[in-house]
Write a structure and sequence with these properties.
Number of strands: 13
Radius of gyration: 19 Å
Order of helices and strands: EHEHEEHEEHEEHEEHEEHHHEHH
Shape: globular
Structural class: alpha/beta
Number of helices: 11
Largest sheet: 7 strands, parallel
Oligomer: single chain
Length: 306
Amino acid sequence: MRALITGATGLIGKHLVGMLEDVVVLSRNPDEARRRLGKVEAHAWNPEGGPAPPEAIRCVEVVFNLAGEPVFEGRWTDEKKRRIRDSRVVGTRNLVSTIAASESRPKVLVSASAVGYYGDRGDEELDETSTSGHDFLAEVCVDWEREAMVAEQLGVRVVCVRIGIVLAPGGGALATMLTPFRMGIGGRLGSGRQWMPWVHIKDLAGAMLHASRNDAIRGPMNGVAPRPVTNADFTRALANAVHRPALLPVPRIALRLALGEVSDILLASQRVFPKVAEKSGYVFEHSDIAGALEDVMTSTAQSSTA
């Protein structure tokens, strides 16, 4: 199938590009996108600036919308929060406007969202029917999904994938975590009792492709592994994976001083389950955190020696 991807040079986008044969990408820098991704058709697009070029979406069957300002890079100033919101909400609105103007509309839009939709929920078990939270990131996710769902009015099936912490070699949250753990100074965050909804990159990309091909899936779908773990359990598994101790917990106040408002996201508890993906027949390759981390670390080691 011919697929259009926004945010294709990001962690998830690069993996999806590698799983598809006929790919069009929208990028602020199409020359750089072609250099990094190889044989793709690339078009220039500023998500906040307006609709995408009409030729980019011609004959496209599925759109994967992954573009967005990185959430965990830098402190959340007012300007940073504006970019986080507008890159997702305004960007998705402009993408849907592109679809609306197209003479040959895609059949499905698979649009990224995040488990931040749920807010901080303690030990509550959460699935796609659960209500949203009320903090900044939750409100962004609500508005982000609302803009994507407008495409339903155009006859396009829409799936909003609420993505958890993505485990992948060479990037993402795990790359940031690895340095202190390899130095033997990693540890749990705060109490460590908060739940961490995680997912292996292979399963996230696989579930997104599954959603694009399964007509029964509409609306929200949690992009997480079926066995969430607490931060303390994740910390132990990561320490074991790198063969180092995890002795130094990071107090809540230290996180707040170092990261500001971002620390609230790291300490939030979201016990999220992928009910829609499992019910629709997706079989997870990596359900256990220890096995998932071992696979990622092996892939990382192989990449570094290649």
